[in-house]
Design a protein that fits this description.
- One of its GO terms (molecular function) is DNA-binding transcription factor activity.
- With 244 residues, the chain is of the alpha+beta class.
- The chain contains 9 helices and 8 strands.
- The strands form 2 sheets. Strands 3, 4, 5, 6, 7 and 8 form a 6-stranded mixed β-sheet that branches. The protein has a two-stranded antiparallel ribbon with strand order 1-2.
- Strand 4 and strand 5 form a beta hairpin.
């Protein structure tokens, strides 16, 4: 087994332990589909987990489920780099919103996460944090008309933002008119609880701000872009009416 295969299996075992701890009814087939492996692979993983002392209970009979004994702890949390970055940025957003509640331990969590990165990755995370902007709270009018964006849109926008990649989107204005845009997502702006993407719009050939919940479809292009300075977007950011 190669080093990559070994690392993949170790990561899968960690995720299996978490999943079995959380889900009240989970079958081998469910686990195989969730992790993109065969039932035999999952069976071998479960056998190894039991050999390591994990108490995995199984219901007998057709459709029987699996679960990790509720008294068993899953141990330390091992995050993939992307997960750690997301958590660190979320902590930074919470701190910058200056909420007095539940912030007592965030500094300690942030320091531990940062310490787990190499200097190169720390610098990359700092650049990402600088591209997330916090504005004033959205008006009640805007909040009343907001909805959660589709999961696929969030995933595509999230990755394009991190990788500095052009994004094809379908955008719907407040009046219902839709248009297809090619955008470079330079910054993300939170006017709580509404997220906006501050982008260079290649259709309009200039900076534009789009409400994330009005993006109906998004597809990554694989084409990278060069980050522009924040001052290039200042006219757009100074516009209080961001409900386009």
């Amino acid at each position: 087994m190669s080093r990559a295969d070994t690392m993949d299996r170790m990561r899968r075992l960690e995720l299996l332990a978490v999943q079995l701890k959380q889900d009240s009814h989970c079958t081998v087939q469910d686990l195989a589909e969730a992790h993109g492996v065969s039932r035999r692979t999952i069976a071998r993983d479960l056998a190894l987990m039991r050999a390591q002392g994990m108490q995995i209970d199984a219901d007998r009979g057709r459709g029987g489920g699996l679960r990790l004994d509720r008294t068993w702890g899953v141990g330390r949390v091992n995050l993939a780099y992307g997960e750690a970055v997301d958590l660190l940025i979320s902590i930074a957003v919470a701190e910058r919103m200056d909420s007095p509640m539940f912030l007592a331990s965030l500094g300690s969590v942030r320091r531990q996460l940062v310490a787990s990165f190499s200097p190169e990755k720390r610098a990359k995370v700092e650049r990402l944090k600088a591209r997330i902007l916090i504005g004033v709270t959205a008006s009640t009018y805007v909040q009343a008309k907001a909805s959660a964006p589709p999961k696929r849109v969030v995933q595509a926008l999230h990755q394009a933002f991190i990788d500095q990649e052009l994004l094809d989107i379908t955008y719907q204005r407040e009046d219902g008119v839709r248009s297809n845009r090619l955008i470079a997502p330079h910054y993300l702006l939170l006017k709580y609880p509404i997220w906006y993407v501050v982008a260079f719009d290649h259709l309009r050939e200039g900076p534009r701000t789009f409400r994330c919940d009005r993006i109906r479809a998004a597809e990554r292009t694989g084409t990278s872009f060069t980050l522009l300075p924040k001052k290039a977007f200042e006219p757009t950011l100074l516009n209080d009416d961001l409900s386009i």
